[in-house]
Amino acid sequence: FIVSDFERALKQLVCKREVIAIRCLDSVVKNIPSVGYVWGQDPETQSTTLLNFSASRSAELQKTLESRINNQNHLLKRCNIDYVDVPCDSTFMRTLILFFKQRMVAP
Fold this sequence. Notes:
Blueprint: H1 6-16, E1 20-25, H2 27-30, E2 36-41, E3 48-53, H3 55-78, E4 82-87, H4 93-105
Parallel strand pairs: 1-4
Antiparallel strand pairs: 2-3
């Protein structure tokens, strides 16, 4: 999260509203392939950059992303916010329906 003291803001929001976090994760992010060097383009600025996806660098990126997801999970739990991860590469309606059905029966 980019905002400083985001946790305090989330806790204030939760006091007034029901909050559910929906995180969209691409399958590539979950399993970063080791493909060597790849050109990447920033969709906002259109600038291109040579990215290093060697085996060691991919493993390092994978650990960083897993850590970030774990930190987000802990933050959301501390703030009593339910969350669901939906896949970007397939239909997400089934995932959301199952999530909300589980919330209905949870104590």
